[in-house]
Write a structure and sequence with these properties.
This protein is of the alpha/beta class and about 280 residues long. About 50% of the residues lie in helices and about 20% in strands.
Length: about 280
């Protein structure tokens, strides 16, 4: 199946009251694991690369690799650029085959955020590519984007209507108490805020910082209107990093390193299957 847009999978999830998992990848084996996990459960999936991952692997290489895996998977796969801030870089990713991009201008004023986001939407929409943007500031660290707790602020529901209408985006990342990375204490999501935002707009809503949120909180957030949930840290540290260290330390001399990477692929697959089950998207391909 060819790569699909974010708009197509999220509009379906909006109608079906489930969320689509969006999983960060860092190389071949873990994106294989992500897509394999989705295919096993016949679920749509979003595979996303940060700007750092794109620069590490190359725009054309990523697009060719993921397009090939998607074609063999039999499920809808979105190739998404996560948390990009540079307009020219976003345009290059679109031109090379990404089917969805996120422009993160959340550190700007509302007016500036609208202006930058609108430019990206104009470029992307003319090429059939979806756009996600962020309103409010999600705390934590995402590569070059670092937001201290004191600087994070929640999305103002009243701003959502203005922002969505002015930009024409396909999905909105909201700040409602999540952070990027592992939580130092139990996360406290503002469910009333999610409900208020949903009551004012039918834009698909995105929850960043999905690693470490209890399943029951994720389920509740989905029931209130969240349609896309990002998971990155768990795949990076647990699925990839810890698995790699564990099995590499057990390798005898002159052994085949592919055996280790097979374990990484399987670990990522299992994480994705667990999340997809919680998100309610099993069988929604």
């Amino acid at each position: 199946m060819p790569l699909v847009t974010l708009r197509s999978v999220l509009r379906a999830s909006l109608k079906g009251n489930y969320a689509v998992g969006s999983f960060n990848f860092f190389g071949l084996e873990n994106v294989q694991g992500i897509i394999k996990g989705a295919a096993n459960l016949k679920a749509p999936v979003i595979v996303q690369a940060s700007p750092g991952a794109v620069k590490h692997m190359g725009e054309k290489a990523i697009c060719g690799m993921v397009a090939g895996l998607a074609d063999e998977s039999g499920v809808p796969v979105v190739l998404h650029l996560d948390h990009a801030t540079d307009y020219d870089f976003i345009c290059r990713c679109i031109d090379n085959g990404f089917t969805s991009v996120m422009i993160d201008a959340s550190r700007k004023s509302l007016h500036e955020n609208i202006d930058i986001t609108s430019r990206v939407v104009d470029y992307a929409s003319r090429r059939g590519v979806s756009v996600e943007a962020e309103l409010g500031k999600v705390g934590g660290s995402e590569e070059e984007i670092k937001v201290e707790d004191k600087d994070a602020y929640f999305t103002n529901p009243e701003d959502v209507v203005t922002f969505v209408k002015a930009t024409g985006i396909d999905a909105l990342a909201i700040a409602v108490g999540t952070i990027h990375g592992f939580y130092k204490s139990e996360p406290k999501l503002d469910f009333n805020r999610i409900a208020a935002i949903r009551s004012l707009s039918d834009i698909p809503l995105v929850l960043h910082g999905g690693t470490g949120i209890p399943d029951y909180d994720l389920t509740r957030a989905i029931s209130l209107g969240v349609n896309k949930i990002n998971v990155g840290t768990e795949l990076w540290l647990v699925g990839y990093g810890n698995t790699l260290k564990k099995y590499a330390s057990m390798m005898p001399d002159n052994s085949d390193p592919r055996k280790v990477m097979e374990q990484v692929r399987e670990a990522c697959m299992h994480i994705v299957e667990e999340k997809i089950t919680v998100f309610g998207s099993v069988g929604k391909a």
